[in-house]
Amino acid sequence: MIESRLLLATTNRGKIRELKKLLLGLPFKIESLDKYPEFGRYRETGQTFEENSRGKSLFYSRSYPGLVLAEDSGLEVEALDGQPGVYSARFSGSRATDEKNIRKLLRLLKGVPWPRRRARFVCVASLAKQGRIVKCFRGSVSGYILNEPDGRNGFGYDPVFYYPPLKKSFARLRAEEKNRVSHRGKALEKVRHFLAASWQRQS
User: Fold this and answer.
1) What Å distances lie between residue 139 and 39, 48, 102, 116, 147, CA to CA?
2) Counting CB atoms within 10 angstroms of each CB, which of 16, 67, 76, 167 has the fewest?
3) Would residue 158 show up in a list of annotated catalytic residues for this protein?
4) How confident is the model over 41-75, as pLDDT tens digits?
5) Contact at 8 Å (CB) between 164 and 120?
6) What is the residue extent of each domain of the chain?
7) Parallel/antiparallel/unpaired status of strands 132-145 and 161-163
């Protein structure tokens, strides 16, 4: 039978909240890394979201007795040749915060016209168990970068990511709205289906 414990390989409180909502209802005891400081910390050195996601899930799966779900995600901006990409969380340096990252992004895009402010959020989620990858899942969503922050919900670059179909920034969406259309929501929906199907087959 598939393990009934699932570790979210992150200490980011915003991500933990989103992930738990997206996985709600699955027959797993969902835990997060902040309960296991003895596992150490994985150093992200990959050049792609998939490399970081796979590496992280493998690293923690060697210590955890159940399944490990790791995701790496970030923002790719067309006018910046795909930056910040895998460096999204630390775009403004070693002491990066969401606010500092947004300020740097907007500074670099100053004067860039709307058509060239196209961007996309990308998420790759990986499941691992006992040192081996079980499966990887990908999700993405396209939009534009605003000239200034708009809204207070979400985290990361949400205040400056404008989503045309809903005519709002991600930071103006309710959690349920965002989870239906976001990169993480799309990737985790695939995770949900996979876990639910695996549970049914093996229970």
Assistant:
1) 28, 14, 22, 22, 25
2) 167
3) no
4) 998 899 999 999 999 999 999 999 999 999 999 99
5) no
6) 5-202
7) antiparallel
**CB neighbour class for 72 (10 Å; exposed up to 12, middle 13-18, buried from 19):** buried
Catalytic residue among 72, 98, 150, 158: 72
Q: What is the pLDDT of residues 68-123, one digit of tens each?
A: 999 999 999 999 999 999 999 999 998 999 999 999 999 999 999 999 999 999 99
Number of Cβ atoms within 10 Å of the Cβ of 131 = 11
Two tokens at 94?
């070693």
The pTM (predicted TM-score) of the whole model is 0.90
SS (H, E, C) the chain: CCCCEEEECCCCHHHHHHHHHHCCCCCCEEEEHHHCHHHCCCCCCCCCHHHHHHHHHHHHHCCCCCEEEEEEEEEEEHHHCCCEHHHHHHCCCCCCCHHHHHHHHHHHCCCCCHHHCEEEEEEEEEEEECCEEEEEEEEEEEEEECCCCCCCCCCCCHHHEEEHHHCEEHHHCCHHHHHHHCHHHHHHHHHHHHHHHHHHHHC
Tokens of 154: 């979400």
